[in-house]
Design brief:
Elements (H helix, E strand, L loop, with lengths): L1 H17 L3 H7 L3 H4 L5 H13 L4 E4 L4 E4 L9 E4 L8 E2 L5 H11 L7 E6 L17 E12 L3 E11 L4 E2 L1 H7 L3 E6 L5 H67 L4 H46 L3 E14 L1
Parallel strand pairs: 3-4, 5-10
Antiparallel strand pairs: 1-2, 2-3, 5-9, 6-7, 6-10, 7-8
Length: 327
């Protein structure tokens, strides 16, 4: 009975998940580990890309997200491959695997038409990437650009820019959602130069905004690191300085008392006390110098890392420009 209940619960969770928009699915973090069928948006894109690139060499099962490679590709053996971790009797298919890298590199080397049109169909794929109402039945133009940034490490960003025929723009998120839907490529008339110029201008603005975002992110890191060093500096150094100040006052009092001593024994005891406090003060001063040097090294390290994080070079290139329609 319990086994039947568990199976039913799994089935219900899967059905509920399938009816959620992709944003809700990811927000709820209902992953493939618990449902056995869910792919997030990036895995979904990777899966569809694999289907396209290996359409002649493999047979695909969309329900289980597995495929059987019938012809050796990139020196990889034939057999059953699976994206889901809980699939038995299958070779794991991950982004880092040689077969996946072959698929991605082959896709990047494809020659793309300069005047293509894509008709997006929201019902063509099971992925629930619900488009906003304003895009239903819309037409327009879209460009996907690659922004390469050389800084602490090389980074790459994919920037969408698009507008409808009435001139209203699409957001990055809505452009991404378009490509989570199925689509049909058809030949199109030449895209006019003025449209390409507007798209290119939008790419330039988008790139500038992205670089500003990167700079803001790096500045925030710097400020957080600066605050950490400042707090550490004051916690350590202020404590030592306060202790030195207190010792200085106590030494003055003890020296005064020693000068006014009423007996040799009393003076001797006070002089020893003064000497002991002075030794402690010297140790604290040495420790203060050491801590100040540590703070200085921390600041130098922070400045070096900030310099490394600064954008040193950028490169922007268009991957494709298309006309689009939404069914």
């Amino acid at each position: 009975m319990q086994e039947q209940i568990d199976e039913r619960m799994t089935e219900v969770r899967s059905q509920v998940l399938e009816n959620f928009d992709i944003n809700v699915q990811e927000h709820l973090r209902m992953t493939k580990d618990t449902t056995g069928t869910f792919l997030n948006r990036y895995e979904h894109i990777f899966w569809e890309l694999t289907k396209y690139m290996l359409s002649k060499e493999a047979v695909f099962n969309d329900e289980k997200h597995t495929f059987v490679l019938r012809t050796p590709v990139a020196n990889q053996r034939t057999g059953k491959y699976a994206m889901l971790r809980n699939t038995e009797d299958a070779i794991p298919y991950r982004l880092s695997s040689p077969l996946a890298q072959h698929v991605i590199n082959s896709a990047l080397s494809l020659s793309l038409s300069e005047n293509a049109e894509i008709i997006f169909d929201q019902q063509a794929l099971p992925m629930n990437a619900n488009l906003p109402d304003y895009l239903n039945g819309s037409e327009g133009y879209l460009v996907l650009a690659s922004l390469g940034v050389s800084a602490l490490s090389d980074e790459q960003y994919l920037l969408f820019n698009a507008f409808q025929n009435d001139g209203s723009p699409l957001s990055q998120e809505d452009c991404e959602k378009l490509f989570l839907n199925g689509g049909l490529e058809v030949q199109s008339d030449n895209i006019a130069d003025d449209i390409r110029q507007r798209l290119q201008g939008d790419v330039a603005q988008h790139s500038t905004a992205k670089l500003k975002e990167i700079d803001t992110r790096n500045l925030k890191f710097f400020q957080q690191e600066e605050t950490r060093i400042y707090q550490w500096e004051h916690d350590v150094i202020d404590g030592i300085e306060d202790e030195i100040t207190t010792l200085k006052k106590n030494i003055l009092v003890a020296e005064r008392d020693a000068r006014n001593a009423q007996s040799v024994a009393e003076k001797l005891e006070l002089e020893k006390k003064v000497e002991e406090m002075k030794r402690k003060r010297r140790r604290l001063r040495n420790e203060l110098e050491d801590r100040e040097e540590e703070v200085s090294q921390q600041r130098k390290k922070m400045i070096t890392e900030l310099e490394q994080r600064m954008v040193k070079a950028t490169e922007t290139s268009n991957l494709f420009v298309i006309k689009f329609k939404v069914k």
